[in-house]
């Protein structure tokens, strides 16, 4: 799973255009906006011939941005397996919560 998560992490950094991407950010982390926080939410294994051949990783991804009309939102929505779950504003920071499946083939 580590390789999968790191690939996903780097993809999010590219979309954001910075290193302010946090996996399960600890509460003592000072957030600088815009940023992305994500966590693993679920896994789905697909089987054929009594073997696992594909694993889908579902991540919950939260984009935090001061600008409600930002291009990062569109980039995340344009991902093939991305859905917007929720959006809200807290203390002037817009939060957009996505469910994003990241697919990786298993070599078994």
The helical percent reads 10-25%
Which strand order spans the largest sheet, edge to edge or round the barrel? 1-2-3-5-4
Percent range for β-strand residues: over 45%
Mean pLDDT: 90
CATH class: Alpha Beta
* Beta strand count: 5
The profile of the biggest β sheet is:
5 strands, mixed
Give the helix tally: 2
Q: Indicate how many domains the architecture comprises.
A: 1
* Known CATH architecture: 2-Layer Sandwich
**N-end to C-end Cα span:** 14 Å
Overall shape: it is elongated
**H/E element order:** HEEEHEE
In CATH, the topology is named STM4215-like
Q: From the alpha-carbon coordinates, what is the Rg to the nearest angstrom?
A: 15 Å
Uncertain stretches of 5 or more adjacent residues: none
Structural class: alpha+beta
Question: How does this model look, in words?
Answer:
It is a single chain. The protein is an alpha+beta fold and 108 residues long. It has one domain (2-105): STM4215-like. The chain starts with a helix and ends with a strand. A hairpin with a 2-residue loop joins β2 and β3. It has helices at 2-16, 71-77; strands spanning 21-23, 35-48, 51-65, 82-90, 93-105. The radius of gyration is 15 Å and the shape is elongated.
Write a concise keyword list for the protein shown above.
single chain; 108 residues; alpha+beta; STM4215-like; 5-stranded mixed sheet; 5 strands
Layout of secondary structure:
Layout: H1 2-16, E1 21-23, E2 35-48, E3 51-65, H2 71-77, E4 82-90, E5 93-105
């Amino acid at each position: 799973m580590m390789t999968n998560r790191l690939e996903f992490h780097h993809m999010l950094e590219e979309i954001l255009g910075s290193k302010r991407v946090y996996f399960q950010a600890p509460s003592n982390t000072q957030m600088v906006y815009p940023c992305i926080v994500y966590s693993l939410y679920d896994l789905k294994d697909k089987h054929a011939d009594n073997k696992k051949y594909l694993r889908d990783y579902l991540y919950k991804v939260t984009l935090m941005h001061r600008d409600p009309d930002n291009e990062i939102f569109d980039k995340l929505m344009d991902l093939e397996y991305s859905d917007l779950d929720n959006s809200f504003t807290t203390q002037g920071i817009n939060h957009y919560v996505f469910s994003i499946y990241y697919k990786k083939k298993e070599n078994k």
